[in-house]
Amino acid sequence: MTDVAEAITRVHREEWARVVASLTRRFGDLDLAEEMAAEAFAVAVERWPTDGVPPNPGGWITTTANRRAIDRLRRESRRDDKQKEAQVLYEGDGPERLGAIDDDRLRLIFTCCHPSLAMDARIALTLRMVGGLTTPEIGRAFLVQEATIGQRITRAKGKIKAARIPYRVPSTEDLPARVAGVLTVLFLVFNEGYLSSDPEREPVRGDLTLEAIRLTRLVHALLPADGEVAGLLALMLLTEARRSTRVSASGELVTLDEQDRGAWDAALIAEGHALVWEQISAVAAGRGRPGRYQILAAVNAVHTSARDVRDTDWSQIVALYDQLARIDPSPIVALNRAVALAELDGPEVALALVDRLDLDGYHAYHVTRADLLRRIGRSAEARAAYERAIDLATNTAEVAYITRRRDQLGIA
Questions:
Q1: Where do the RNA polymerase sigma factor 70 region 4 type domain residues begin and end (predicted)?
Q2: What does the alpha-carbon distance between residue 407 and residue 322 come to, in Å, rounded to a whole number?
């Protein structure tokens, strides 16, 4: 029974987005696609413990979901025409024209990121439908309440249906209006894999990071001259290269300065560096200005170029964050800049900057404060900051790391 439950969980994690995307392509209805996918998994929960896990679990889920969708449409007499259309699609009526890239999930991303939808709605809907993230996970990514995310998703699906937004990769002239939302979604999916916000899941989710990279490669193939697409791909590759070293055998987060750099993936680093240098050359030649993802990729290129943490060029990293702050003057950017500045000008200077930021609900803010306070000998305040971070953190590896750091300070 446990093996079957684990198999269903794994199939849900790996196949949910593909099943929803496939159903959306066949029936053109996001609500129907999501409902029938959920029903198919419910049937699996009921039948697989008795019948066994099928040889092709994803195919079984897709077939079951398709049959249930057709049954639903048959029962709804007011949708006779739609049912006939669905039946033709399901049984096959010649080859389907899929466009430049035959990838259901990529088409679903572009559908959800239609410019007629508000940006926050585009992102929330796509994270749910394609990223497979739960509403609470999306809420944590946005730092907003779960109910708000649910409302955004419901409104977005309703607008897609009412406006009959087509399920396809848009034409070349339509891409610029959608690519910003697409990149934001892919970045957030990758981030959820980089450090999962769900305490019930593994702390680092390779399924999400690898899928985000795969989809970003497809977008890069669509828009090879777009610097931000290349920058995001480089950022993902340079971050993914460190995945195997980021959590210890005991399940604790391993920070960048303590990671085994010899175990980083050299091929991914080389590919990421090549993309970064390609973008640097393009900017130097006057072809555009670097955007957010290109700058973040350059920061990661500096980190991954250092064979030892002591070789890190912190002045270059601070300069890059200065550049990023001019286009994204957010408190998160300021926090990351302060971390780098502490290595140049000392923890007191950095702490003065950090204390000005309004980030009380963000656990990483309190971890940063605690580390800076610790370095200048203010142990009681550092301990209090660690405790606040523990209260806010949801990633199990992060909680283990922060707890150990707090406990090293002794009892207050």
A1: 109-159
A2: 35
pLDDT tens digits for 342-358?
A: 999 999 999 999 999 99
DSSP state of 228: H
First to last CA, the chain: 47
pLDDT (tens digit, 9 = 90+) per residue, 37-52? 888 888 888 888 888 8
**Please, which residues bridge with residue 253 across strands?**
247
Residue 56 in contact with residue 36, Cβ under 8 Å? Answer: no
Model pLDDT for residues 293-309, shown as the tens digit of each residue = 999 999 999 999 999 99
Q: Give CA–CA dist 165/101, Å, rounded.
A: 19
pLDDT at 112: 80
Residue boundaries of the structural domains of the chain: 1-96, 99-194, 341-412
Give 331's contacts (C-beta < 8 A, 6+ positions apart).
357, 358, 359
Mean of all residue pLDDT scores within the chain: 86
DSSP state of 143: T
Instruction: Give the C-alpha separation, 277 to 358, whole Å.
Output: 35
Top-level CATH class of 341-412?
A: mainly alpha
Task: Look at the chain and count its residues.
Answer: 412
The percent of residues in the chain predicted with pLDDT above 70, rounded, is 92
Query: Which helix (H) or strand (E) covers residue 406, if one does?
Result: helix 396-407
Statement: the pTM of the whole predicted model exceeds 0.85: no
CATH 1.10.1740 assigned to domain 1-96? The reply is yes
Is-same-fold flag (1-96; 341-412)?
A: no
By the 8 A CB rule, do 225 and 369 touch? no
